[in-house]
Amino acid sequence: MQLGIEGVSRLYKGKVWGLRDFSLTLGPGVLGLLGPNGAGKSTLMRILATVTRATHGSVLWDGMDIADRPDGLRSVLGYLPQDFGVYPHLSATEFLRYMAAVKGMGAGSARRRITELLELVNLADAARRPLGGFSGGMRQRVGIAQALLNDPKLLIVDEPTAGLDPEERVRFRNLLSELSGERIVVLSTHIVSDIEAVATTIALIAQGELITHGPPEGLLATVGGRVWEVVVPSRELGALRQSCLVSHTAHRNDGVHVRVVAEQAPAASARSLEPSLEDAYLQALPTRRNQGGHVQGTSR
Amino acid sequence: MVFAIARADFLERVRRTSFLFTLLLAVYLGYAAATGKIALRLGEYRGVYTSAWIGTMMALVTTAFVSLIGFYIVKNSIDRDRMTGVGQILATTPLRKTSYALGKLCSNFAVLAAMVAVLGVAAMMMQASIAEDPRWDLWALLSPFLLVALPAMALTAALALIFETIPGLSGGAGNVAWFFV
Description:
The structure holds two protein chains of two kinds. By secondary structure, chain A is an alpha/beta fold. Chain A folds into two domains: 3-215, Rossmann fold (3-Layer(aba) Sandwich); 221-290, no CATH class. Chain A has eleven helices and 14 strands. Chain A has helices at 41-48, 70-74, 92-102, 107-120, 136-148, 166-179, 192-198, 216-221, 237-243, 277-284, 286-290; strands at 3-12, 16-26, 29-34, 56-61, 64-65, 77-80, 154-158, 184-189, 201-206, 209-214, 227-232, 245-252, 255-261, 271-272. In chain A, the strands form three sheets. In chain A, strands 6-7-8-3-9-10 form a six-stranded mixed beta sheet, sandwiched between helices. In chain A, a hairpin with a 2-residue loop joins strand 12 and strand 13. The two termini of chain A are 33 Å apart. The relative contact order of chain A is 0.14. Mean pLDDT of chain A is 88; it is low at 288-300. Chain B is an all-alpha fold. Chain B has a two-stranded antiparallel sheet. In chain B, a hairpin with a 2-residue loop joins strand 1 and strand 2. In chain B, helix 3 packs antiparallel against helix 6. The mean pLDDT of chain B is 84. Chains A and B meet through helix 3 of A and helix 1, helix 4 and helix 5 of B.
């Protein structure tokens, strides 16, 4: 089971590149696709899910080009788009039965699977209620259930935790971890903590280009010994932001505790910290680094 | 697969308040016909309300009104999938375009046929209430619905789908064009 992305580019109207020369090879496990809004994550996801075609390059599923033979992938694909929509007057069961049918599942197996999945996403009690009355989080859970209906070998989830409350988010992360064993999961998000919890490989994307990819440890190593905490008065925070990459700030009684990513300690009083993925992510983003760390990276 | 598409689309539409209003309008048309507000006349003459005359009159009224109004009701099935985002999930499944189109066609037809069925019931009530000719001939009463109204609905359902798939006709221009068709 292998998904090969080979030099994929996508050009939109107005000659805007959504994705540029993106190459990556994926095997079983969870790929965390991390990048700021507008980085090209959804474009890549839509190409992988066969919704959109690449302008250049190819995507190979077990060696087969998905642009030429999309059905080979579609029969084993689960996709949760960022803007997941439903028929508001159908119940969760009716909607999932519909999705199961278009995925080619038989009525009996669909019924059993829907019951299992509604339990899994904690919607069994709301199974017969119209989807129009569901909260955003509940709808998202229906989206997760529909993506898992056919027990997919490739699961693509685009910003899946958007709209989920903290408890649901943890539940979803655990679910993704459990699912990742024998399948390829591509998880796109701009929330670093989601990636931190489940990803076996991370790909950073910005301005449509792959910045770096590898295991979380590899990414963390790029900021090893370069993360500091310094306490400064509020009035000095602006100056510090001008000179360093600030990844987090917290106001305390003794001043502002600033988490800084820098080659050298920003002050004599600075103490070294264990790096986090968020530090590595912010450090790797080219625009932010070039701007001298103007961005406060609290995506959590 | 075709049945599943048609079923989901049909249920989604008939549970909307707008469909209820349309049914109420259909019932009103039946009532108007039953009370003589809408009647087919040949100069100063009108037909005797036999089963055949009631069936024919109601089927013609149904065909004229439902094919006009019904077109606007069913001409949004593909657009709804686009607007709700359901379409992009369907695009990632092995679903064939022909199955999708057939499912939507069946759903369009089922919605229009439901309205015809309401007017068919209205025709029976008309026969029972007016009773100018007390003899019941169910075939004569209902065959105009089966042979005239339903084929017209099938045509309307298909044209609504075709209009939706042709870029120039999918929007307001198509709606205006249908009014004159």
